[in-house]
């Protein structure tokens, strides 16, 4: 069982920055692919960025060049640095940890970008 706790969301003006953190319990964090998803009202949850146990990253096209995902295996934490935020980035952001057989979700953190 893995528990994920997100933090760092909030209200920011367009063009601003936020850094989301996701702290994971458990001793095998380093083996999980970690991801950040977002879900806006009335829309499906979609993958924003992911990072494998080997450090390979993947990004949603609309955030490339603005968002950076990273992980610190010593701290069991994954981060999402979000720069040049846009109103369309407004959503609840969820942390996800997965292997090929199982996945876990955090409770989500709200990000609101005002124009």
Mean pLDDT: 96
| Beta-strand residue percentage | over 45%
Largest beta sheet, briefly?
7 strands, mixed
Number of strands: 11
Q: Give me the number of helical elements.
A: 0
Overall radius of gyration: 13 Å
Multimerization state: single chain
Shape: globular
Helix content: under 10%
Structural class by SSE content: mainly beta
Uncertain parts? none
First-last Cα distance = 40 Å
* Element-by-element helix/strand order: EEEEEEEEEEE
General description of the model:
This protein is mainly β. 0% of the residues lie in helices and 52% in strands. The protein has no helices and eleven strands. The protein has strands at 4-7, 10-13, 18-24, 33-39, 46-51, 57-59, 67-72, 77-82, 91-98, 103-105, 109-114. The strands form two sheets. Strands 2, 4, 5, 6, 9, 10 and 11 form a seven-stranded mixed β-sheet that branches. It has a four-stranded antiparallel β-sheet with strand order 1-3-8-7, with no helix packed on it. The chain is globular and about 40 Å long. The mean pLDDT is 96.
């Amino acid at each position: 069982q893995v528990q994920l706790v997100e933090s760092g969301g909030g209200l920011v003006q367009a063009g601003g920055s936020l850094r989301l953190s996701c702290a994971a319990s458990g001793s095998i964090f380093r083996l999980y692919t970690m991801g950040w998803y977002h879900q806006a009202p009335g829309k499906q949850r979609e993958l924003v960025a992911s990072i494998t146990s080997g450090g390979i990253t993947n990004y949603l096209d609309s955030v490339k060049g603005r968002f950076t995902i990273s992980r610190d295996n010593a701290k069991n934490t994954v981060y999402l640095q979000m720069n040049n935020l846009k109103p369309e980035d407004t959503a609840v952001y969820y942390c996800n940890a997965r292997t090929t057989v199982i996945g876990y979700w955090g409770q989500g953190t709200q990000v609101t970008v005002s124009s």
